[in-house]
Amino acid sequence: MGEYFNCAECKESLYGQKYILNDAKPHCIKCFESLFCSNCEVCQKLISCTSKDLSYNDRHWHSECFLCTTCSRSLVDLPFTTKDGNLMCVECYSNKYSSKCHACLKPIRPGCKKMEHKGNSWHEDCFTCNGCLQPIGISRFLIKDAKNYCLPCYKKDFSEQCIQCEKPIMTGGVNYLDQPWHKECFVCRECKQQLASQRFTTRDDSTFCLDCFCSIFFKECASCDRPVGSLKGSNYISFEQRQWHTDCFKCKKCSESLVGKGFLTCKDDILCFKCGTNA
Predict the structure, then answer these.
(1) Band of the pLDDT at 2, cuts 50, 70, 90?
(2) 106-120: pLDDT as tens digits
C-alpha cells in the first residue's frame, strides 16, 4: 500500500500531495510535467498539466500563445491554416495567399468551392451567366467578349440560325451565298451527303454533289447509260436526240469507232457501213 503512494519516477511519497496517474502509475506533478508535458511552440515554456495544451501536427501551444502570426488574433475558437509552419487565421491567409475571385475580386478562402477556367478563379456563387445571372456551376458555357454565358443565353443572344433547320449554330457551320448552315444540314438534295468538304453546284436553289447533278440533269449515253458530259465539259456525239460518249460511239457489231465516220442506223443501233450493208 505504501509503495502505491510513491511517485513512480522519483519515488517520493505522494501522501498529502497532488499526483497524476499515467498507465495506472502515480506521478508527482513535477515528474509528470517533465516526462509527459510539451513545450510551447511560441514561448518555449512548459505547458503545465494545469494549462490547456493545444496540439496540431505534433506541435503544442499554450492557449494564450495560439495566435495568428499576422494579426495576432486568438485562434482558439477560429478556423485556421498554416503557411511555412506559421499559424494564420483564414482571413489573413486568404488576403495574402489565396486567389482572388475574377468577379467580385475578393479572396477565395481555403475550403470554399472554387471554379477555375483558363487561369481565372471564381467563388461558386460568382461564377454566373452574364445573361440570366444564374450560377453556371459545372454546366457547359461559352465566352463572348470575355464574358461567360450559359448555352441557352448564348443561343438566344448570339447564335446564327441555320437557314435549313432554323436552329442555332453553336460552333463551325458553313456560309454559302451569305446564308449560314450547320455542316450536317448543308447536304446534297438527292444523296444527302455533306457538301462542306467537296465540290458542289446548285440548281433552282437546291445544292447537289457533282455525281447527283450529272446523273439528274445530264442526258444518258445511248450505249452505257451513264451521264453524257460533266461540269468541266466533255466531248460527245449527238444524233437524233440521242447522245453518246465519244468512246461509246461504236458499231454495234464490230465495235469499230464511228467518230468522224459515216454510219448507218438499224432500229436503235448504229453500224459501220460494212456491218450495215451486210445486215
Answers:
(1) very low
(2) 888 877 888 998 889
Cell numbers 436552329: residue: 167
Residue 231 — pLDDT band, cuts 50, 70, 90? low
State how far the Cα of 184 lies from the Cα of 170, in Å rounded to an integer: 13
The Cα 191–Cα 200 span in angstroms is: 12
Q: Could you tell me the maximum CA-CA distance found in the chain, to the nearest angstrom? A: 150
| Mean pLDDT of all residues in 191-207 | 86
The one-letter code for the residue type at 265 is: T
Residue 1's pLDDT is 43
**Secondary structure (3-state) at 114:** strand
* Contacts of 276 by beta carbon, 8 Å cutoff, 6+ apart: 263, 264, 266
Q: Which residues, in sequence order, are bridge partners of residue 236? A: 245
**pLDDT for position 245:** 80
Question: From the DSSP assignment, how many helices (H) and strands (E) are in the chain?
Answer: 5, 20
Rounded to whole angstroms, the Cα distance separating 167 from 194 reads 18
- CB distance 122 to 113 below 8 Å: no
Residue 101 DSSP label: P
Alpha-carbon gap, residue 196 to 187, rounded angstroms: 8
